[in-house]
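Narrative summary of target 7.
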Amino acid sequence: MSDDDALIHTETVSWGFRTTSPIVLDETSRTRTVFMGEIHDGKLRSHMVRQRKGEGGEWLDINEVNFNQIPPDAGVKIELNTAATERLFDRLVQLRRIADSELPPSGSKDFVVAPAEEVVRVVGRERAQAIRSLLASPLTQEDWEALIESAPDIAISLAEAQLLHQRKATIDEFESSLREHSDDEAFWQGFFKKNPWMLEAAFSAAVVLLADDIYIGGKRAGSRHGLGGSVADFLFSDESTKSFAVVEIKTPSTRLIGARYRGSPNEANEIFSPSSELSGAVVQVGNQIASAVADFDHVLRESYPTNLDRVHPKGVLIVGQKDGLGPRELASFNLFRHKLFSLTVIAYDELLRRLRIMYDLEIPTAPEQ
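Modeled conformation, tokenized:
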């Protein structure tokens, strides 16, 4: 904590209403985010502003927005990194304690963040617990409603920061699991079941997960997995068309490319066949879609009578990794999958890259071929 943060100055603006010294949450050479806290009759109010540095070195507010006049399809987002979120949480705890103290109705008063009476202190064990509590979202519904009512921008920032923190950690887990569980299909079934939002990144439209490991048709006898039964790893619904989409997953270690089909090494006429694992998986997904369409009325429609259609069914196959393919192997892989109808084939490392782009994470530089 800087010396400036250690001293909190409060100043009376009107009877029972005090402003508090602002705190800079994050700052670059040109912009910064500032939190302004206020105390009104023992209750907290606040706002945040984005500022840029003027020609004379002074800080100027950026595009001040009146939320009462903002269009319904627009919004404003102020993103806080982990350090800035922790500073914001610390200051809110400090101001809460100040507001709970016996403040005179007028005049100015200073508070020092230090071990003494009439202080605000969030350090050591208490500070660590506060940060853990923030990231774990332990606030009650009543707490959130109060925060949303008094400071909606802060509530949104805290919720978004928590979600982003969790998803970035899961994306890192995805990357490490590509090495540790490359040939374990059961692991990936469970991983995507816990994190279906990752599978949504494989689609070009908004989708919603309906079920996993689900029978979708073609069964003639026996149990759910009996003779002729077709089971999809995951079943989604397209939010716009309500058409169903099946997702089949193979392992990251699955081969994508087979032997050279014809041509000279490293020449433009060199082409490769898809591996038997890849071509077999493509036929498998195609068969799943055909079975689901044929038996739609007495299988899927019975389970999802109001929010599922069979007009434009889709399939997604998540399989293998592109990393390690040579230029001509990669060209053959792309030619094969881009000619498929209503079926998207995406490699695990491609899905990881999409997720990193979506959540603004650093993408490792690919090695030169």
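The longest helix spans residues 152-180.
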